[in-house]
Design a protein that fits this description.
This protein has 149 residues and is α/β, with parallel strands linked by helices. The chain has one domain: Rossmann fold (3-Layer(aba) Sandwich). It has 4 helices and 4 strands, in the order H-E-H-H-E-E-H-E. Strands 2-3-1-4 form a 4-stranded mixed sheet, with helices on both faces. This is Transcription factor, GTP-binding domain containing protein.
């Protein structure tokens, strides 16, 4: 036998297989139009950049889900379900482990007590100490932070 026993149909180097690690994105409409959000964002003095920080399992993602529920038409949201949407946990391993691994930013239009609208870039950050680099990056971007205790 020769040293070249491999058939021509079998590659010498196997091709790279792409692994899907992102969950499918649910699209839902907001209570405000995209043009209204763009108009608000054109005025930098109105923009608020906020990071949600806190320890593991302290409700940062659940709080973010509540904000999304207030600003979006959520026809698929089950009001009677105990299970939360975890809208900002976009990775499959985040959904399975029920913890955030990557910081996710969402632009939401929120109102103050005087019904003045502000565009808020809210960052849902991981709570585990091993992902503190994500929290550090979010805090560098943020104007302020909400500490979840």
């Amino acid at each position: 036998m020769d040293e070249d026993e491999q058939t021509l149909e079998q590659p010498i180097i196997k091709p790279v297989t792409n692994i899907k690690f992102e969950v499918g994105v649910q699209h839902s409409s907001t209570y405000v139009s995209t043009q209204f959000l763009v108009g608000l964002m054109s005025n930098p003095t109105l923009v608020r950049n906020v990071a949600l920080v806190g320890h593991l399992q302290h409700g940062k993602t659940v709080f973010m889900d509540m904000l999304i529920e207030q600003t979006h038409h959520m026809s698929t949201f089950d009001q009677n379900s105990e299970k939360h949407m975890r809208y900002t946990d976009t990775r499959i391993d985040e959904q399975e482990r029920r913890i955030s691994i990557k910081a996710v930013t969402m632009a939401l239009v929120l109102e103050d007590s005087n019904s003045k609208s502000y565009p808020c870039n809210i960052m849902d950050t991981p709570g585990h100490v091993n992902f503190s680099d994500e929290v550090t990056a979010a805090l560098r971007f943020a104007d302020g932070a909400v500490l979840m205790c």
